[in-house]
Fold this protein.
Amino acid sequence: MNIVDTRLPYLETALTRQTMRELVAEQVVPRLLPGRTLAKLSLQYSRYKAGKEHVALYQLELDPEPDTAPPLLTVTFGQRGRLQRIHEQISSGDAARARSALLLAEQSCLAEIFPADFGLPLLWQAADADRATELVGAMLPDCRDVRIARVDLLRYRPGRRCVLRYEIEHHGGRLVLVGKLYAEGKRATIVATKAQTLSGQAAATIKLATPVGLAPSNGLLLMEHIDGDKLGDQLENSPSREINEQTVRTAAFALATFHRFRLETSESRSLRSEVDGLRARLEPVHDVGTSLAHDIQALLAEIETHLAALPPTTECVIHGEYKPNQLLLRNGQISVVDLDRSCIGDPAIDVGNFCAVLEKEVFYEGHPHLAGLSDVFLSAYDTANHIDGIGRRAAIFRSLTFLRMLTRYFERNPQGYARLGGEWRPLVFLAEARSSIDRL
């Protein structure tokens, strides 16, 4: 069985591996990368919104191989008229960037070679060392004769956000910074303000990156680069139970410290708003994955029943996406990165999310040596920052996180669900959410 989306008639092409490979090999590569042929097409990321668009990011292996890193290709299937308007706008701009974009009107498809990105137009400049030198130099008034020696791609979500690592040479030294590019300039300003406020409160036992430059009209934010090893990688690779327990205790104490910070912001999150947000996200899924959406909605209704019985809790500053790989360890000090979703909210959102990610590593990623660490984390947090009812509230959010993970897996691979039905592996998140709710 295939996903049928009447508003995206060429969705099957996007979701079928062989058909997509043929499209890229026969039409995209010859026109965007003349003189080369496609050797391998590797999917790096995808997202699907029913009736709107399907976006996929691929890494291309070519013959002959280019001197630089294998190129990245973003392919967007969407409404033909919208993509035509976007392509016309691209074609009327920078000529080199225009040569990196291709409209396949018959398939309602737009292909772009990184760093071309119609949703992040500044990426064309920001991700290239030569073109970014003037841009970044203007953001660093205290540095003279700036030259960007190297740009590394750290994280990329086409059309939404890109995180880059800059190695910068200037008169007087060398500097390493992180550049965060947002689709909306105002988002960069908001994140910069939050990061500046929170980093100023960091204690000796916890470190936060400090903003060093902002181009609000362009959506580019420069942040201090923090060295360290990802806590998630350490947990995954360490066989020592004693070390892993101490590691998650350290993460719990760091979160307790973070929750005592102060922040003035209109952004807020609660367990109720998280349920409402997931309900809204599920709306497009109903048309193409009715059974799955129904099962998730049924569990959300049970979660709402439990929420109604909860007493009020004291809100605080929350990280908003607290998980092992948002933490870096170096010389005994822990650093918390990515403050984009920091706001005022229920502390159970951070506690529950961290526990859910730890448990996912056990039942989905196949790391049984991490079993029980979520209980260690919760106990350590309660010791450092006791909040009445935090365990129950965190368990509710843990269940909600499993449902959100399941929804995200569907958005990235709807064809897998359509083809495998009850055998589709991510459905284990539904079972884990059910089990967690039953234990409340």
